[in-house]
């Protein structure tokens, strides 16, 4: 009953919908010449059913174009508009870099006092600060036409090295064992003893250098949380630097702490032996290296901190607000600091001032109370009727969760379990049975209930922000929602650290930004800006879902109506294998007579245009609820097909009983009956799709009328005497069409059959649109009014977004992908620097995409 043409038609419709996404000029990013790209053709209708969106922050909500804005050195903050004498100004001028012949002219900095301090050479802390930035990194440098081209593993590193460059500490070249910089016109080469690279667990990187005078020093930069844990008790300016970090956090800046440590020759040699042993370890090499790194990265001396700006992309607040009106919940999963993630939530309208924000401690407490109550329940009450879960938030108002990766592990019993397993493995013992009072799960069922409670609590909130999370934790959060909510999920990101999240979700969207193409290559859909997600879901996704649902409902209906006529006919043909229709009609029914109109509905139909779809996000709700195609709609199509098949068979059957034609002959033969039923069916199914069509074009009219014309043209040809003479065996209905259709009585029979088949459908549609109209029906009724309002709105200039005052912001400025330490240490990627033709040329930074070609 379901022919192969269904699968072919579905694939044709999906391919066409994917092409429409690729051709959408409103999703084309002209600055980078990047169009939207549908990298799959099987998920278009699911774009209209999204309930949860999981988004990265850096590069997805923000531009990921970093700029060095502020810093704190030895307890003193720099970056506000200031004169060279230290006078603070309301509005200042950018620093004049004409004194530095190799400065990057695009680099802007407002504090002239820091430049004067560095140039004077009196402040050793300031010189040490920028020396660290020019030495402690994994940036690759290449000389091209007199320019120094920096290739950085992350935009943050490129911004920091460029800042050191402008302040007079120029990174020139590196080899496998050395690194060369120019310090205020004096070129110096340092011997690189070890390079301890960054990863998402360490959240820091270090370099051990041997100075020309024989001193050995470790430079380290990383997130404030990991650096402060490793500071020496003798380190100064910890409180003032922390207070500056909080100020930077309130300004949505990404922060990084800088520190150093002097190492004696004996200490370094002892550590170097352990380091080499770890490097050649055959098992758990990364874990062994991390342990060795921990040993040397201790008792650090704090120098200061950097603050880098990463602005929001255009249209992000408006996009999130529209998606929220469509009842799509957005979760932000980021590796940034809690304050920064929270502030970005405020700035992009994900968090609002009237929301009650709950942090990890509150979440853990509520979940623990629910768990204790469950443990205290009597076993008999558990076996009884399952009670509906009580809401976690009983107070009125909106709620939001802001939770760190550490609390996420604590809540979901991941970190404790891992630590205990590793500790017992070292001792060679098995894990003891769990005590219910120690906060551990008693069994896997209790752990699963804890996860369900967390998902239920998070889904009660309007917004969820998970910060300081690893790529693995991102994927785990997405899988929890997929597992326990049975909802369609979408993940969107731009970097390698988002690949796990993108692959875990039902639909993955990659943004082609500054962090390469890993996310794009792992995604199902790709474009250049987050704001295009609004059009992808609310326009293309909704249209694709509506079109596919209409197509499936109609396709099942027309095949039920076609096939069940054979069933009714079997009661009159002695249950033989004789069919109702002619063989050629059965062959061409789904191929020529009824395929084109439904294909065009699946490709072109739209209830409202794209602008009204964006103006009313509530139109997206039917897709989330699955109301347009489900078991109910399937059975309605089944019963509709049964009804039409009964009408198509029994009305002509009754008309053919005791009938006399105009020529005195009875037309009640089998072939005339087959012609009448087939003609009635073609008229019914083509007029039925006309009633289902919301968006009429010339192509739709041509398809409906053309399908009917093709049917009659082919029927008269294959019923002609000429083709019967040439092919007598396959074409046996000679003259049946011309004999039957010249009888007005049979034409009246066809009209009666078609009218009775379509009249109930017309009445039901009329009642639904007048008495029980849907949101789409109401909007269609006032479509002209809304189109005029949209034209007026386009003339008005949108107001600029204003950030709330009570929010906090911060982050650590590092990519979650590894740097180039392995390449540097192996020497495979080191190129010998060419002679510099024009040292006055500025250093420019290349995108990550070129950096991947090393």
Automatic annotation (TrEMBL):
Binding site for Mg(2+): 56, 58, 494, 498
Reaction catalysis annotation: a 1,2-diacyl-sn-glycero-3-phosphocholine(out) + ATP + H2O = a 1,2-diacyl-sn-glycero-3-phosphocholine(in) + ADP + phosphate + H(+); ATP + H2O + phospholipidSide 1 = ADP + phosphate + phospholipidSide 2; a 1,2-diacyl-sn-glycero-3-phospho-L-serine(out) + ATP + H2O = a 1,2-diacyl-sn-glycero-3-phospho-L-serine(in) + ADP + phosphate + H(+)
Entry GO terms, CC: apical plasma membrane; cell projection; endoplasmic reticulum; Golgi apparatus
Catalytic residue list: 56 (4-aspartylphosphate intermediate)
Entry GO MF terms: ATP binding; flippase activity; magnesium ion binding; phospholipid transporter activity
Transmembrane feature ranges: 551-572, 584-604, 634-658, 670-689, 695-714, 745-767
One Pfam family, short name: PhoLip_ATPase_C
Cofactor(s) this protein requires: Mg(2+)
Binding site for ATP: 56-58, 157, 198, 221, 254, 334-336, 468, 474, 497-498
Bilayer topology: Multi-pass membrane protein
Single biological process term from Gene Ontology: phospholipid translocation
Keyword vocabulary terms for this entry: ATP-binding, Cell membrane, Cell projection, Endoplasmic reticulum, Golgi apparatus, Magnesium, Membrane, Metal-binding, Nucleotide-binding, Translocase, Transmembrane, Transmembrane helix
UniProt xrefs under InterPro entries: ATPase_P-typ_cyto_dom_N, ATPase_P-typ_P_site, ATPase_P-typ_TM_dom_sf, HAD-like_sf, HAD_sf, P-type_ATPase_IV, P_typ_ATPase, P_typ_ATPase_c
Chain spans, region Disordered: 370-392, 423-443, 789-811, 825-854
UniProt feature, compositional bias: Basic and acidic residues: 838-854
Cellular compartment(s): Apical cell membrane; Cell membrane; Cell projection; Endoplasmic reticulum
Family: Belongs to the cation transport ATPase (P-type) (TC 3.A.3) family. Type IV subfamily.
Subunit structure: Component of a P4-ATPase flippase complex which consists of a catalytic alpha subunit ATP8B1 and an accessory beta subunit TMEM30A. The flippase ATP8B1:TMEM30A complex can form an intermediate phosphoenzyme in vitro. Also interacts with beta subunit TMEM30B.
The name this protein goes by in its record: Phospholipid-transporting ATPase
The species this protein was found in: Pagothenia borchgrevinki
Top-level taxonomy: Eukaryota, Metazoa, Chordata, Craniata, Vertebrata
């Amino acid at each position: 009953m379901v022919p192969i043409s269904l699968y072919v038609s579905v694939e044709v419709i999906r391919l066409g919908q994917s092409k429409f996404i690729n051709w959408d000029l409103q999703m084309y990013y002209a600055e980078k010449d990047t169009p939207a790209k549908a990298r799959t053709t099987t998920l278009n209708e699911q774009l209209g059913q999204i309930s949860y969106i999981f988004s990265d922050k850096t590069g997805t909500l923000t531009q990921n174009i970093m700029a060095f804005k502020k810093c704190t050195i030895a307890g003193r903050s720099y970056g506000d508009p200031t004169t060279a004498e230290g006078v603070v100004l309301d509005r200042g001028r950018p620093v004049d870099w004409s004194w530095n012949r190799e400065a990057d002219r695009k680099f802007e900095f407002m504090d002239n006092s820091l430049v004067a301090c560095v140039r004077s050479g009196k402040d050793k802390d300031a010189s040490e600060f920028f020396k660290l930035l020019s030495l402690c990194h994994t940036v690759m440098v290449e000389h091209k036409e007199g320019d120094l081209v920096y290739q950085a593993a992350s935009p943050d590193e490129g911004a920091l090295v460029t800042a050191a460059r402008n302040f007079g500490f120029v990174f020139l070249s590196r080899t496998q064992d050395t690194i060369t910089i120019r310090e205020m016109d004096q070129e110096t080469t340092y011997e690189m003893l070890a390079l301890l690279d960054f990863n998402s667990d360490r959240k820091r990187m270090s370099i051990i250098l041997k100075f020309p005078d024989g001193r050995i020093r470790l430079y380290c930069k990383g997130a404030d949380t990991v650096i402060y844990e490793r500071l020496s008790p003798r380190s100064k300016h910890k409180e003032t630097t922390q207070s500056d970090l909080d100020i930077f956090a309130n300004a949505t800046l990404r922060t990084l702490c800088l520190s150093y440590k002097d190492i004696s020759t004996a200490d370094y040699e002892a550590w170097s032996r352990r380091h080499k042993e770890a490097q050649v370890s055959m098992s758990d090499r990364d874990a062994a290296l991390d342990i060795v790194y921990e040993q040397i990265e201790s008792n650090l001396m704090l120098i200061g901190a950097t603050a880098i700006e990463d602005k929001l992309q255009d249209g992000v607040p408006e996009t999130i607000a529209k998606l929220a009106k469509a009842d799509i919940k957005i979760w932000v999963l980021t590796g940034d600091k809690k304050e920064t993630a929270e502030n970005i939530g405020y700035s992009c309208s994900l968090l609002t001032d009237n929301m009650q924000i709950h942090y990890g401690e509150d979440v853990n407490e509520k979940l623990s109370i629910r768990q204790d109550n469950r443990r205290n329940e009597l076993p008999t009450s558990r076996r009884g009727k399952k009670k509906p879960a009580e809401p976690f938030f009983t107070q009125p108002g909106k709620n939001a969760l802001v939770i760190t990766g550490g609390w996420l592990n604590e809540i979901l019993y991941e970190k404790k379990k891992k630590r205990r397993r590793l500790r017992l493995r070292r001792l060679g013992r098995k894990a003891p049975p769990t005590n219910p009072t120690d906060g551990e799960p008693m069994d896997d069922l209790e752990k699963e209930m804890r996860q369900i409670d967390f998902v239920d609590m998070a889904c009660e909130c309007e917004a969820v922000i998970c910060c300081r999370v690893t790529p693995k934790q991102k994927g785990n959060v997405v899988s929890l929602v997929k597992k326990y909510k049975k909802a369609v999920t979408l993940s969107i990101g731009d970097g390698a650290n988002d690949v796990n999240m993108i692959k875990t979700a039902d639909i993955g969207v990659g943004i082609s930004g500054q962090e390469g193409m890993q996310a794009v290559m792992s995604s199902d859909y790709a474009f250049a800006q987050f704001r295009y997600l609004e059009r992808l879901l609310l326009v293309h996704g909704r249209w694709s879902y509506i079109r596919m649902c209409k197509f499936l409902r109609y396709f099942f209906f027309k095949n039920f109506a076609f096939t069940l006529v054979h069933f009714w006919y079997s009661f009159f043909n002695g249950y033989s294998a004789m069919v109702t229709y002619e063989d050629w009609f059965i062959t061409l029914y789904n191929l020529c007579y009824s395929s084109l109109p439904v294909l065009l509905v699946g490709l072109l139909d739209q209830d409202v245009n794209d602008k009204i779809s964006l103006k009313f996000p509530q139109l997206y709700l039917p897709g989330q609820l699955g109301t347009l195609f489900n078991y109910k709609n399937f059975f309605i199509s089944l019963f509709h097909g049964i009804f039409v098949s009964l009408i198509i068979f029994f009305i002509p059957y009754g008309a053919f009983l005791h009938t006399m034609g105009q020529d005195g002959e009875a037309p009640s033969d089998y072939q005339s009956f087959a012609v009448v039923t087939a003609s009635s069916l073609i008229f019914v199914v083509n007029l039925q799709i006309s009633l289902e069509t919301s968006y009429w074009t010339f192509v739709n009219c041509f398809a409906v009328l053309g399908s009917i014309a093709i049917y009659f043209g082919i029927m008269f040809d294959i019923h002609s005497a000429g083709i019967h003479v040439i092919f007598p065996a396959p074409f046996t209905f000679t003259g049946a069409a011309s004999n039957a259709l010249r009888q007005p009585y049979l034409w009246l029979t066809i009209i009666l059959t078609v009218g009775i088949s379509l009249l109930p459908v017309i009445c039901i549609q009329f009642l639904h649109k007048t008495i029980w109209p849907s949101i789409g029906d109401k909007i269609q009724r006032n479509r002209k009014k809304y189109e005029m309002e949209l034209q007026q709105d386009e003339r008005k200039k949108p107001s600029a977004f204003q950030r709330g005052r009570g929010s906090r912001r911060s982050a650590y400025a590092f990519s979650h992908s590894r740097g180039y330490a392995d390449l540097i240490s192996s020497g495979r990627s080191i190129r010998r620097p060419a002679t510099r033709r024009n040292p006055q040329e500025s250093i420019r930074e290349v995108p990550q995409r070129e950096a991947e070609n090393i």
